[in-house]
Design goal:
Elements: E1 8-11, H1 16-34, H2 39-58, E2 61-66, E3 69-72, E4 87-90, E5 94-101, E6 110-117, E7 122-126, H3 134-144, E8 149-154
Parallel strand pairs: 5-8
Antiparallel strand pairs: 1-2, 2-3, 3-4, 5-6, 6-7
Helix pairs in contact: 1-2
């Protein structure tokens, strides 16, 4: 089945930390069975494995573009990995979508996404734990908000994230879609 052109959604993907947690849990369970007297290995292994499986099954919403607008995730907490509160930006407030990549061209992965509001304020988020599909974002934008441009930029947005002067230069790059 083809994806809905009116909605694009991404969820967190498994990370190296998830793999390490699962491997450590399974190793501890194996050691617990190998050394019958060391029940602590079984307990630690079961707890680690259960927490990792729970985190993989939960897969938090990382990004959404749909008829209501763009939902930007909160920044993930370094210790727990949980995301802070998300921000919904209605399409009526969106002036431009800026995709910041590490290098030139459409093949370079998007590292940050910026939303320039019509008021001049800019919201930007790191693309962490998920990948942005430029084509699907362009299709949704063309369907629900055809007047919003998607542009590419190299570099990073400024630290203040407010005002159009803080965004990286997008001149000469043209629209992505």
């Amino acid at each position: 089945m083809l994806p809905d052109p009116g909605c694009y959604e991404e969820r967190d993907r498994p990370t190296g930390r998830d793999g390490m947690g699962l491997a450590a849990g399974l190793l501890a369970i194996g050691l617990g069975f190998l050394w019958h007297t060391q029940a602590i290995f079984l307990v630690v292994g079961v707890v680690l494995t259960a927490l990792t499986v729970f985190a993989l099954a939960r897969r938090q919403l990382a990004f959404r573009a749909g008829p209501a607008g763009i939902l930007l995730p909160g920044e993930p907490d370094r210790l727990t990995g949980r995301r802070g509160p998300a921000v919904l930006i209605p399409w009526a407030d969106v002036e431009q979508i800026i995709l910041y990549s590490g290098g030139p061209g459409e093949q370079a992965p998007v590292q940050r996404i910026g939303i320039r509001r019509r008021t001049g304020v800019m919201e930007a988020r790191k693309v962490t734990g998920w990948r942005l599909d430029r084509g699907r974002l362009a299709a949704v934008t063309a369907t629900v908000a055809p007047d919003v441009r998607i542009v590419g930029a190299t570099g990073q947005p400024g630290p203040g994230l407010e005002g159009p002067s803080r965004a990286a230069s997008t001149s000469g790059l043209g629209p992505i879609d």
